[in-house]
Amino acid sequence: MKPVNFDYYAPTSVEEALDTLAELGYNGKVLAGGQSLIAAMNFRMARPGALVDLNNIPELSYIKPTPEGGLAIGTMTRVYAVEHSPEVAKRFPLLPEVAKFIAHPQIRRRGTFGGAIAHADPAGQLPSISMVMNMKCLIKGKGKEDRWVDAPDLIIGPFMTVIEPDEMLAEVVINPLPARTGARYEQVSRQNGGYAQAAVASIVTLDEKDNCKDVRMILMGVGELPILSTKASEILVGNKPTTEAIEAVAEEAAASEIDPATDLHGTAEYRRSITRVLIVRSLTEAFARAEKGG
Amino acid sequence: MSQTFPISVTVNGKVYNREVEPRLLLSDFLRHDLGLIGTHVGCEHGICGACTILFDGEPVRSCLIFAVQANGHEIRTVESLGTPDHLHPLQQSFKDKHALQCGFCTPGFLMTLVPFLEEHPNPSEDEIREAIDGNICRCTGYEKIVEAVEDAAAKLSQAK
Amino acid sequence: MTAKYLSQPIKRLEDKYLLTGNARYVDDIEVPGVLHAAFLRSDYAHAKINKIDVSEARKRPGVVAVFTAEDFGDFWKPGPLQVPPPTAIAGSKFNARTIVPIAKDKIRYSGEALAVVIAESRYIAEDAFDDIIVDVEPLPAVIDLEKAWEDTSVLVHDDLPSNMAALVSQEVGNYEEAKKNADVVVSKRMLVEHVAGAAMENRGFVAKWDEQDQQMTIWANTQSPLTVRGSVARNLGLAESQVRVITPYIGGGFGPKVMTSLSDDVLIPWIAKKLNRPIKWTEDRRENFLATTSERDQIHHCEIALKKDGTILGFKDVFYHNTGAYDSYGMTVPLNTQTHTISNYRVPNFYTEIRMVFTNTMVVTPVRGAGRSEGVFVMERMIDFAAKKLGMDPTELRLKNLLTAEEMPHKTGIIGQDFVANVLDSGDYLDNYQKCLKAVDYEKFRKEIQPKARKEGKRLGIGVVAFTEGTAVGPYEGCKVTISTNGKVTMATGYSTQGQGHQTVFAQIIADQLNVKVEDVKVITGDTGSFAWGAGTFASRGATLVGTASYLAAQKVRAKIFATASKAFGVPEDEIELGEGFVFVKGKPENKITLGDLAIKANPMRGVVEPGVEPGLEATAYYGPPHGATGSGALAVIVSVDPETYKVKVERFVMVDDCGTIINPLILDGQIDGGVSMGIGNTLYEKMVYDENGQMLTASFMDYLMPQATDMPKKIEIIHQHNKSPLNPLGIKGIGEAGAIPPGPAICQALEDAFSEIPLEILESNLNPSIIYDYVKKARNS
User: Fold this and answer.
1) Nearest Cβ partner for A5 among B2, B5, B28
2) Is the ipTM of this complex over 0.85?
3) Do A105 and B131 touch (CB under 8 A)?
């Protein structure tokens, strides 16, 4: 299990990285944390011709408040740093909650926030969370104007994004959540740190009358790609998030919005069943948190 | 041999200057180029944790980093802890509590736990178990490892 | 004789090296000029080979040589039968088809070696795989055991009329007659699924040929260094003395490292000699899954016949056992299953039939538990099913039928892996079980804890099972104990060690006999240059066989100490006293001779030695038991199940174990703990899966789930029994596999108990939440 050879570039600035990527075109691949990529290379399932290592660009690693009250996270910020950042915990407690489910601590020390999103592994937690939080992704390319893509539009297939070979994800911005917003991530996996057999993340907002003002819910591991539920908003928005309403969302979403597969660790039916359970758990807790002010 | 890169790496306080192929895994570099055989290789896909080392103080998998990426960085391996006749307190606790059997996974556990104990001087059992969830031990069933960490935590905090 | 060290929790002598990165494992061996080997392995499980073209690979820079089966000429041949089949069982059939070192003409399992590349680095060797053109004609694969047995349309070995590897039946009493008197008969089909040994260290092999000395030196992490030495010598036409096999520190064995005559140990010495270059091969994790042996994988058809009062009249078990594509390792595993199926209980009539079958999978050989797990699983499950049918509590049915101390030794009459009729030598199985019930407080759980939990919407269940562990089988092991002139003691054995603490436990036994400090006894394991007799590390036999040999050899040395001291002091032996590291005449401690000086006196350089006196304070001893010693125990588990996600958590784990005399309680508990993690892993996480084409779907730790720290119960509560084995002077029985045996049936029983209001029946050994969901759904609908 040794990787094939490749050309190696270690740019020390974003500009230099973009130059190199432009030069390499389809032959080049960005090396961020490498925690998925290098494992795949060791199996020789990934054989990139050239790697552009972003680990020598300190300017890509930061967590900064935005003027709007959100956060901007540099693409090379380690997942561990996001997990343990007081800034993140204060604004987006969902993120550290999710981070604990991402592989094991040693992987989170090296794996990067932007790298995980750009890798677009449908079984990965961060692509789903970027979608449910509607994160704004800054894409840079040599000679191109900076472009911002909403996370749900970034990911177009399993391990596929709109990022061109000469481009890179440079920054992710998370806009502040409205008042009375609560969120909750729920996951079932065989073991701690393992792949999700099903997972649900919900972000809900209550209005002043305790009706559901907004709900975003993503269903993960139960389809080819993470699925943003439409049933949740159809059923809940404008209504009281009663137990019955939440159960109705769970029933309908699990019945019609997902397409789980049978694999070594569970049948499609089982995954559908736990999705239903996780939706109830996720929404119930998210609303409870919203009620407490988020 | 394809293109090689000169690298300068500080390992356990000593500076090494070497030429490496970019694909050379840091685990192989430490073991076979530098002869630091205490870092073990169990899976080469980042699950087992036997190859865990400290990279600028952070516990990471050396099988998921290329040696060339260690250029200019500081690495610590199990060889930096104690010696056979002067064990590090955590190593002593592992011995006292019988927290190792074949010993193959042990360096990875130690290198995970040294920074953990610095950050969690008084860890709960659940925290310890979560901290070592990324290190697989086939021999001990983990219970005695947990006991060793508790023992080391008590000793280390007393020493402070 | 004072026992200063025996039964004490002596901290391990080997630890300080292991903890500091100072212990050398096989991949740590650096031989100057070494080349690296990599095996190109088949993607197909079953195929006819047309041509393997390696010409381009040979041209790749850094590649030194590439070999296919053709290139080995007459050297290529099927390997030996590492373990012969039992000849003692009348009417048994066995078709020997032994493993080949590299595929020729036909591929029989996915992962089988097709070519071996020798290169300047492992990286380059793997690069060369891209240059090799493999032209094969794929054949349908046969994986399902029952289908493989019945259906002859796909044959693993074309020269056989079927896929039958063996057919062995044994019977005590007469089951069919006994059944006629039964009030209740229960029959079930059950699966015991495939698991890996998965030692953290993969296999490895280094060979160095010295042309001048005509010596082959091998470093390998094998459990059978003497088998490897013998087969390498025979393969290359060398004397055994020309081959030295050294086992360095080994990162876990658990069974699979016992298998020999694989690609590495056959081909690499030949290549090292041919190229006259040292060769290293280090297996990677993927290869370890594909091309190292593994175990379990049986399908049982069981029947139990009982009286209304719960008395067991008889048991019948016809089971299919997967041997993989070859059967070089004989029938150790299924024979263990036969001996362990009934061994806890009074079963007067027992029929057991092995249908060992060839399939297109890698070879099956023992993994910790080794057939015992399967036998205990099906028996314990059948008792649970019978209890339900009888309307009895499962513990009550067991209490009625478990063997007691008064019935020992108990001859079961079933011939086991050591080819002798099984005799349960010692123990009180009923007492084990009763102590376990008491320790877990079964009554309180039933009356208080479980009903209370149920009211709170929690599902808790309890399972209490019994087990035996056949250990310490022959043929023999031995060792040599030497007191050096510096007063320190060296013991050398051919037995190799993989983390069991042998360097400490053998030292404890010897230190007591010679009255030296335990840290002054150095134990050398598995180096054929130091000691060249013995069979290997398997069947939990080290502590008993090598431990007893250590005791006997140390006693001989002790006798020599007294004889030599008697001469030196000129007094009768009974006036000599042995202090710690020295001798003196009773009452005159001021005039002492150290053991080092005595060792000099025992090796006179001039003068005349009396007839019959052997030089040195040194002795060799061997020990071979008449039959194995059987450990026993009981296990209670309490599990909780999430009623919505069906995730299972082991809340309590209480184990009673009887391994006779305890040599070192610290190490003993470690052995049990490790076995338990494997038993829990096998039940709730680990499963090797081949698809119908013979592709392994679980060839990484991403898919093959190893138990983690958060998967284990917080405390493994252990209660020790002390029924000594009468078979050896110290009263030792083995312990290495105990923990791995009972968790499966105990967890199944507990899960059924957690859903006691529905007719839940678990018929397989590996469960995940999805499988439990299916079982519950089926039971609710029935």
Assistant:
1) B2
2) yes
3) yes
